[in-house]
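Sample pair:
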Amino acid sequence: MSAHTDIAPVLCEDVSFTYPGDGITALDGVSLEVRQGEFVALAGMNGSGKSTLCRLLNALILPTRGKVVSCGLDTALPENLAGIRSRVGLIMQNPDNQIVGPTVEDDVAFGLENLGLPREEMLSRVQDALEAMGLSSLRRREPHLLSIGERKRLAVAGVLAMRPQVLVSDESTSMLDAPTRSETMALYRRLRDELGVVVFHATHRPEEMLAADRVLLLEGGRLMFSGSPRELFDDGELCARNGLGPPSVYLLARELERLGRALGDAPLEPKEVAERLWASC
């Protein structure tokens, strides 16, 4: 993982949000800080406030109370919106909410056109994003003719082309098949490791949380946990209350410990389990 700096690309101070009209409080007094080069998984059941928090980071909505700072910019100041939108890429849960182009490649280029990039730079970024998401062969296709999984990949490609400093993913891997989910998570890890991109990934899949440096858990709009994936899955009561079943590799490590093959701090990555088992032989 890239070394952290003293800069916090994402900062929330006592943030609450109540939806107008229905009076539902989606977030209640949330404070958090995400450091440069950090991969954070955001966990929580439906209705816990995950999507609301993701939209606050991109300034699509503003907090009812408290302060959100993204890439050093206060989201409440109108003059900061353009800077935030160019630095913080949001991949929404429903891809149809952010697909606007008449063709796949036009949609990926849409955000770049708004930035006023030179044509050659735009073409290069569009090609890179299409290749990264396996969409090169569909570049001329109309988005409404794509499958839901392909539209999801298109939404990811559009954000990747912007080359954000902070990538906010609101369950971007839902509706994807298993191989594509795995490839997408690997891509997010590369963005963190190679480019220092902050990845803020909301997910309900415990196995995806294993990729994170830290997991944040929302429960009823409150931040109830902040720690490593290992620490989260060690708290059986908290996981059970939030519908999180520990990943199979975690359970395997714990069973090996029970059998006298202790592997240290319950490694969660399959490769790490294999390496420690081999070293203990």
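Strands lie at 10-18, 25-34, 39-43, 65-70, 73-74, 88-91, 166-170, 198-202, 214-219, 222-227.
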